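User: Quick sanity check before I run a bigger batch. Here is a single chain. Can you write out its predicted 3D structure?
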Amino acid sequence: MKIFRKITLFGALLVALVAIGCAHCGRTRPKTDVSDATYSIMGMGIATEEMMFNYVREYNKKIGPQKLVYIIRTYILESKNEGVSHDVAFIQMCHETNFLRFGGAVLPSQNNFCGLGTISYDICGACFFTIRDGIRAHIQHLKAYGSKLPLNSSCLDPRFDIVERGCAKDIHGLTGKWASDGNYGNALKLKLDSMLNPKKKGGVVLE
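Assistant: Done. Predicted structure follows.
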């Protein structure tokens, strides 16, 4: 009788474990597949901190890890505050600053991460006191293009009021408006696709 009870209990336990295992196998893992929504200026980004960190470090190994993490997390927070996709904002920063290497008209000390106010090499554009201020101004300028909604924080973007509000719903709409480059939207798309679909190789896991 005792042996029978042991077998019965073991069988019940085995059934329970199998059921849990099947339920776990049936769950769908989060995906980062690129879709049309990914290219929208407004909305939720899907890139993780690790994706963003490893993408920049692939092209710029000289930037300090702590500084890069701070920039990444500030982009995510400021984008969320204004309803802007941090994917789009961050990838535009990578494009405009050459992966934070700068080298153009804008100097790193300006904390200008999107070429705001830069017209030529003779005009270096806007300057901001802190990294956060510069990122916030960038996010606000993107929101001016992507939405007609009011800002959720005090305006730091010196060119916010000169933008035709809501004139660019996605990155392709920035072509000829944010930059005169006829390939601007495609350049952002290629970078964004690359960041969201990284090659399988070693990277840094953030804590």
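The mean pLDDT is 84.

User: Great, the batch can go ahead then.
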